[in-house]
Amino acid sequence: MNISAKMRRQGALYAIITDSKISKKQFIYQLMRISILSTLLLFSTLQLLFATSLNGQNIKTDQVTIGLKHDNLVTALKKIEEQSAFRFYYRKADVKDISELNIPLIPRTVEETLNELLQNSFFTFRQIDHNILLEKNILQENYIIRGKVTSLNHLPLEFATVSIKAINSNQILQRKQTDLQGNFQLAIKDKGDYLIEISAIGMDSVSVAVNLADIKTIQLPFILLSANGRNLNEVIITGKKAYIEQKLDRTVINVGALISNEGANALEVLEKSPGVLVDGNGAVSFKGKPGVTIFIDGKPTYLSGANLAGYLRSLPASLLDQIELMDNPPAKYDAAGTAGVINIKTKKSKANGFNGSLSANYSLAHTGQTNESLNLNYRVNKINLFSSASYTLSQSYREFEEDRNYFDPDNTFKSAFRLKSILKDKSNSGNIKIGMDYYQSPKTTWGIVFTGSVTPKSGRTNSTNQLLNKNQQLDSLIYADNRSKGHFNNAGVNLNYSHQFDSLGKVITFDLDGLIYNSTNNQRFFNQTYAADGALTNTQVITDHLPTKINIYSVKTDYTLPLGGKAKLEAGLKSSYIQTDNEANYFNVVEEVSTSNPDFTNHFLYKENINAAYLNYSKIYQRFSFQAGLRAENTNTRGHQLGSIERPDSSFVKSYTNLFPTTYLSYKLDSAGHHSLIASYGRRIRRPYYQDLNPFVTIVDKYSYFSGNPYLRPQYSDIFKLSYNYKSMLTVAVYYTHVSDLQYEVVKQQGAIFIDGIGNIGTAKYVGASVTLAFEPAKWWLNNTYVQVFNNVFKGQLFSTFLDESRTMGEINSSNIFTLSSGWSAELSGFYVSKRANSQFINNGTGQLNAGIQKKVFNNKGSVKFSVRDILKTYKNNGLTNNIPNATEAFRNKFNSQVFTLGFNYNFGRSLSKKSKRDTGSADVEKGRVKN
User: Fold this and answer.
1) Between β-strands 235-237 and 230-232, what pairing exists: parallel, antiparallel or unpaired?
2) pLDDT 10s digits, 556-600
3) Smallest Cα–Cα separation from 483: which of 281, 701, 707?
4) 149 to each of 178, 192, 208, 505, how far by Cα in Å?
5) Who contacts 178 (Cβ-Cβ below 8 Å, separation ≥6)?
6) Would the pLDDT of 359 be above 70?
7) Do 89 and 132 meet the contact criterion of CB atoms below 8 Å apart?
8) DSSP assignment of 292-316, as one string?
9) Which of 441, 551, 753, 797 is spaced 20 to 30 Å from 66 by Cα?
10) How far apart are alpha carbons 107 and 115 in whole angstroms?
11) What is the pLDDT of residue 1?
């Protein structure tokens, strides 16, 4: 038997007798007596000393402090020997394959240390005096295979099915499902070659070949599911993304899973996402609630209103990877957005060498539209370069009708306003992103990312306005020809740093962001008024020049500390500073001579500083998973409207601090984790958009204005949710949200003019339930269906009236993906939203049916797609505006929503999965609050 630890002799005494003769026998006897007596005394003393020492050695109480990073067992045992009196005995052949050990550097007893070192092996240990004997458990019958299944962004895939069979057999020996963390464990009795298959709803199977021989415990590398083939050591993976993935705190939409997304833009993709509604003006709401914050790659857009809608329309779907829907984000995210957070993640390459993808699409609606995109990535040694560029030609067409009726205080009909408009807008959008990552070491990464976009745009609105008298006869007629031309440009830079202290997940990151937004809009309002007999009575020409500049600076740091017992602590700090400069220069034009219009001209400056800190703790204990966080945010704002000869200066200063707790608790109802319950609570804030605080009036048309409100207060929401999950197939949720100081669009009347704006109108309550179902009626057919029903109640003071509006609405969103032979696939999807109430507004029901077909080409590296959106031309945005004193309003919108698209995609270069680059920064919410 080979013994690796050196045997230490406890002691010996030798009496060496020479061959020389001793003449006297008595002397010899005396010497022998002395030697024997001395030897006995020495042995007794040593035995007493060793006995005293051994009485103090106990593996249950003696402590050592060691840490390991990818070390083997022999190294670990030597470290224990260096810090204790224990010596180890074992077979070298038995322990030579026990390696890649990782344990944090903390004090433990020797017994605790050995338990942690040997937990994935079949070794036992026992103490014999000051020695520790390691023995292989020969009675162990099963081989143990452990692994973890994740997505490409390393998020765990729960409830995936894992089965194992012999390599030359079709008989399933064992079938398990991954837990909430994506982990699985299999037990097999006999040695040999086996094949492990991992599958999930909407994904192809993953095959892992393993050989069971001398090593009793097999730890597989992470198994990543992706849309393309990947090689992970000996793991062969082919994956197909599901359209919808359910996570603990979010729902993930895989954009590329729907063929009808080909040729679409980001706003149209959002519109088809479960629970997301987009109105005719491009305003986005989530689960019936306005105030959602939209991120791009973890950073906010800093936009709202027309600018946000325009920016999302400029992003082709070919650049998008995933959309994350979070109605109650964790404390790590900024607290802004009372309806939650929508994070749009763009595509990123993770491969060595040179690789990329290109996409080109042509769409035909009322007019032709195109979008093209190119993604490039080059990684060599410690440098990773990446870039993306896109161009979009967008030409929209919209028919808008509006009927207003005016009444006397006694409710007698007074007059009416009938508007018919045709709106045509055109934009040429270019977006670019260039970045570099430098991998200083396997654990330290520096990065820089530049982003920018240029969007020249123009628009024309032709309208006919009929003014009717109390007898509903034509009083006058107004023809309007309004034109606009401008641009919207932005540029940003992100510097980032990340360091991983160990392999256990201890990480710190830093981000520094700077962003500049610059937009200009030049408009010309041309109105001609005719009498009922057709005589021209008035011609009005107003022009304006509306420049806006926004500078945003942000810095943040995040720290993650794994704790013992499957626990984790996260903490972070953030500070942001925003400056906005808005000018509104209006001119009256008479006989080609322009003079300033002091009633509308103004200049508004705004500054804001937000400081935040958060702490988040998560823990997994048996069937329970718990996460709790607290975020503190301090807000300081200053607004200044510059005065003029006709108008004095005005300003305001506000400062407030709030706490925002979040809590999640999940419980697996069975040991396999097939059934689970998740409860969550969160508190969020919606700060006013920057321009909504500006009290100046903006002209929309001759009878429609928009006005800001410097007295707007933040809106707060408390969100409660309880959900039940069955595997990855079914999610049933109920939720309740209470909103105070509700901010919403309000319309007031000033003579014949309607003034639109934002106001705090009281409270809102949302009570609802939703069902998400993902199943395969057949192997070639995948269905994802989302259904929700909720009731909303709005109460509060609205100008001179009291708002008390309540309505129950429903939504269904379904997609069907058909996998056909020879590289063909097809899709049929659609959604319907019933009649719904939002504060003053009642929107009628609307829906859309989409279809598409796809063929893989060039050895599956490319694809040709043809799709049709809104086949039946059913998508509309019609409704009523209520609670306007002495007036009513009805509106109708018809869009060029039926779109035929022919698209082509091609991927080129290598496709070996490697470490992904950073794509997020410190600007986590400020982008979402810029409004045109």
Assistant:
1) antiparallel
2) 999 999 888 888 999 999 999 999 998 989 999 998 899 998 888
3) 701
4) 8, 23, 12, 17
5) 148, 149, 156, 157, 158, 159, 160, 162, 184, 673
6) yes
7) yes
8) -EEEETTEE---BHHHHHHHHHHSB
9) 441
10) 14
11) 36
> DSSP class of residue 470?
T
**3 state SS of 54:** helix
Angle between helices 110-117 and 73-82 (to 10 degrees): 170
Q: What gap in Å lies between CA 886 and CA 72, rounded to an integer?
A: 83
Longest alpha-carbon distance in the chain? 160
Other Cβ atoms closer than 10 A to 796: 19
Give first-to-last CA distance, the chain, whole Å.
82
Beta bridge partners of 323: 253, 344
Radius of gyration of the chain (CA): 36
Q: What is the pLDDT of residue 263?
A: 59
For the stretch 630-647, what's the b/e string if a residue is b when 16 or more beta carbons lie within 10 angstroms of its beta carbon? bbebebebebebeeeeee
Is the separation of the CB atoms in 150 and 184 below 8 Å?
A: no
Contact 417, 474 (CB under 8 A): no
In the DSSP assignment, the letter for residue 99 is -
Q: Tell me the two tokens of residue 566.
A: 């499957």
| Beta strand 413-441 pairing with 675-686 | unpaired
Spatial CB neighbours of 670, under 8 Å, sequence gap ≥ 6: none
Tokens of 60: 């249950």
Supply angle C-alpha 543, 549, 554, rounded to 5: 160
- Measured distance CA(88)–CA(71) in Å, rounded: 17
The structure's pTM equals: 0.68
C-alpha to C-alpha distance for 185 and 869, rounded to whole angstroms? 45
Residue type, 328: N
CA separation for the pair 162, 178 (Å, rounded): 7
